[in-house]
Design goal:
The protein is α+β, with helices and mostly antiparallel strands. It has a single domain, classed as Aminopeptidase. Helices cover 31% and strands 28% of the residues. Helix 1 packs across helix 2. The protein starts with 5 loop residues before the first strand and ends with a strand.
């Protein structure tokens, strides 16, 4: 990864850029994305427990990873599992290790909370995402494509 890229927790002054990236990942309505992000900062979100952003040296936000704690994840026997709800890197910065760095940060976050797995999913047709997940150590558990990655040995 480019050494000028940093990963940090999302801050309130990131709302506009985070929202723009969400709109690229999920081309839904911008007002809904803004509300979900504001709910996160107001500690009212049921979908996002933590968000990390990737920034360039110029402080441009080029990617994010949204995390939650779910009560179920396909393939896991644990009662709660950290889950990747959203993960995106601006196309211009893909294939440079930014996505991998965001996953590494998510893993560290999950381990700090005492978890030993990290789960995710993708759409069936998203072969690129499926390949990236597998490349980063996730194992497919079912076909609604869901993933589970062991973070530390038991």
């Amino acid at each position: 990864m480019n050494n000028s890229i940093t990963i940090r927790p999302a801050q309130e002054n990131d709302i506009e850029y985070w929202c723009e990236l969400r709109c690229l990942l999920w081309p839904d309505s911008k007002p809904e994305h803004l509300q979900e992000i504001k709910d996160f900062f107001d500690k009212n979100s049921i979908d996002i427990a933590e968000c990390f952003v990737a920034l360039t040296q110029e402080d441009d936000i080029i990617g994010f990873i949204e995390l939650n704690i779910r009560n179920f994840a396909e393939g896991s026997r644990n009662p709660q599992v950290p889950y990747i709800e959203g993960w995106f890197v601006n196309e211009r910065y893909q294939n440079q290790g930014v996505g991998k760095a965001l996953i590494k940060q998510a893993e560290e976050w999950a381990i700090e909370l005492g978890f030993d797995e990290l789960a995710s999913d993708t759409e069936l047709v998203n072969e690129k995402s499926t390949a990236i997940h597998k490349h980063l150590g996730f194992q497919e558990t079912e076909r609604v494509i869901c993933f589970l990655k062991t973070l530390k040995e038991k």
